[in-house]
Amino acid sequence: xxxxxxxxxxxxxxxxxxxxxxxxxxxxxxxxxxxxxxxxxxxxxxxxxxxxxxxxxxxxxxxxxxxxxxxxxxxxxxxxxxxxxxxxxxxxxxxxxxxxxxxxxxxxxxxxxxxxxxxxxxxxxxxxxxxxxxx
Length: 135
Description:
Layout: E1 10-11, E2 28-32, E3 35-39, H1 46-54, E4 57-59, E5 70-75, E6 78-86, E7 90-95, H2 108-120, H3 124-134
Parallel strand pairs: 1-7
Antiparallel strand pairs: 2-3, 4-5, 5-6, 6-7
Helix pairs in contact: 2-3
C-alpha cells in the first residue's frame, strides 16, 4: 500500500501551526469555534507523520480526479485524515472523526483497507474502538 518513489507524499505541519497538536500522548479532540478539533499525540514526529501519510489510502471526490481530496491512514488503531496543503505536493493530517454534523461516513472500501492495516500492526481492537466511538 506504500507509494512508489515518484509518488512520495510530503507531510507539512505548516509554519507555526499547532492546531492539531497537544501535550497528551494519545489522539483525541478538543472543542473549537467551529466544532471538535482533532489532536495528534505529542509522540508523532514529522518523520512518523510522513510515514503514516505515505501508507495511507487516497480518496477521490470524483473518479476522474488525478489528485486525492483526502488521504486516510491508521496508526495504533487511530484513523487519520490528511488534507492537501499544496494539492498534489503536501498534506496536513489530524485524527479523523466521522460523527460530526454534515460529514459523510468513510466508504466501506476505505474502512476495509484501514482495518487490514490495523490488523497487520496488531491494533485491530483499538481500530474498532475508534470507529465505534468516533465513526
